Amino acid sequence: MKNFIKDYVKKSAETKKLILESSSIISEIETIASVIIEAYKNGKKVLTAGNGGSAGDAQHLAAELVSKFLLERPALSAIALTTNTSILTSVGNDYDHELVFARQISAHARKGDIFFAISTSGESKNILRAVEEAKKLGVITIGLTGAKPAAIDKICDYLIKVPSSETPIIQESHLMIEHIICAIIEKQLYNN
Predict the structure, then answer these.
(1) What is the per-residue burial (b if ≥16 Cβ within 10 Å, else e) of 149-164?
(2) Which residues pair with 48 in a beta bridge?
(3) pLDDT string in tens for the chain (192-residue length)
(4) Most distant pair of Cα atoms in the chain: their distance
(5) For a FRET experiment, which of 1, 41, 47, 168 has its CA 20 to 30 Å from that of 192?
(6) Residue 71: which of 191, 188, 192 has the closest Cα?
(7) Separation of alpha carbons 33 and 27, rounded Å
(8) Would the pTM count as exceeding 0.90?
(9) Which domains does the chain have, with CATH numbers?
């Protein structure tokens, strides 16, 4: 058991070390934070979505933005599209599960808003449909995914590919990246 624990922690740490050593990932995180800051300065909002553990990450990101991350500051507009079970089940029943996020993008997103599409595989059909709908509306799309080539790679305006193919390790790194972005947003907008 101890060896399993050590191996798991080592694997997670090695993935984060790869991120640390990747100038392209570091630059993309910086760019994404700047894009979100600019959107907030222009009165826009962030929408997030994912499935399973990524749904939890989407909700976590929205919570950090609306509540606070590290600094006492005004609330920032963010909506997790994963939380309203009545919407999710009615759209899934009346239309198709592939449309549960796209339909909400259509209802809530406006040009210049941000859509954070979180998918460890990059192949989740409901996430891909939401990105497509967001792009039609002029929404800025950000993808968080894993190392494998995926459909999401070709359709997002900004993309971070965590250098792992293991879902739990990817999710841990997604959360770290989301935390970094929240910290940058707060420092840039409210640290003065």
Answers:
(1) ebbbeebbbbbbbbbb
(2) 80, 116
(3) 999 999 999 999 999 999 999 999 999 999 999 999 999 999 999 999 999 999 999 999 999 999 999 999 999 999 999 999 999 999 999 999 999 999 999 999 999 999 999 999 999 999 999 999 999 999 999 999 999 999 999 999 999 999 999 999 999 999 999 999 999 999 999 986
(4) 51
(5) 47
(6) 191
(7) 10
(8) yes
(9) 36-190 (3.40.50.10490)
